[in-house]
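Next comes one such specimen:
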Amino acid sequence: MKTIHCLNAISRYGTDFLTEDYTLTESLGEADGILVRSASMHDMELGNRTLAVARAGAGVNNIPLEKFAEQGVVVFNTPGANANAVKELVLAGLVLASRDVVGGIEWCQSMKEEPDIAKLVEKGKKAFAGCEIRGKKLGVIGLGAIGAEVANAAAALGMEVYGYDPYISVNAAWMLSRDVKHILSADVIFRECDYITLHVPLMDTTKGMVSRQVISEMKDGVAVLNFSRDLLVDEDAMAEALNSGKVRKYVTDFPNPKSVNMGGAIVIPHLGASTEESEDNCAKMAVMEIMDYLENGNIRNSVNYPNCDMGVCKAAARITVLHRNIPNMIGQITAILAGEGINISDMTNKSRDKFAYTMMDLEQCPNEETVERIGAVDGVLRVRVL
């Protein structure tokens, strides 16, 4: 029986997909797999039994990826499962940045006791009129699951869409509308677009990417939307730009002491993926990923190990090895198996930065001593026989 621990409340739509071979446990130390949403895991110590962590969402800033990789724990996320929810809110953000709907609502509320409110509205509504988004230039930085959907939807609404992503995947490129102009430099977006929306992960290379210098290169009166991570934007520089009028509106899904005090900012309470459908989709995807790994050794959508999929094992046994990405690892492992007269019927090896993963289907099941010898190879982090 395999055990799963939920660090947060996970949608029953997802956990109901667990088969009779699984049980939910309240004990972190007894868990083979862990499901998490927003709980911070940086100070947690996992038991030796834990093999995988699946984040029911895209961002993984709450998980120590390298620490867990060193422990032979594979971390998954659920890219694309919440894409539609975020896309819809970004579209709402575009409208809110264009027409002062929020200010207009607040103005109406301020006059709710006035008996002639209808006449007052007709006289004063021009202050909140704004402009349409049709025909305006939108720059989408990051064309992953969410960015691509935003770009396609905006193009369908009649916007002139520029997309930038130096690491765009083949699948994402195929899904991108032909109306989206894929450009090779973000500088074009900063210089030419009326609206700019961010859809990149938070990394050392992207932290503070919307800097004071970058803002100075933008068009006067630009609107900036951030539904990815607050630290992508230098918020002190953004506050100055809003005060000066350089930036007309800043729409962010990340309330913090700085963003909520910016004049001209529209601050949304982190609602991007907070829909019933999104939470269900993320939970189901996380559960399916963790089950496939525990049962078959397949890795799909990992953020600290390479993706690797050999389907269901049809041989006598499957051995999987998480190891460091260093020379001669495959040679040492196969030499041990050959020394025991064990033939390999199928094999795959993938690497990702400092870590790698090897899967082998064997014509006979290795004994415990053989598995221990493989586990003792310098650089091997975890060995499993399935």
Summary: The CA atoms of residues 57 and 78 lie 5 Å apart.
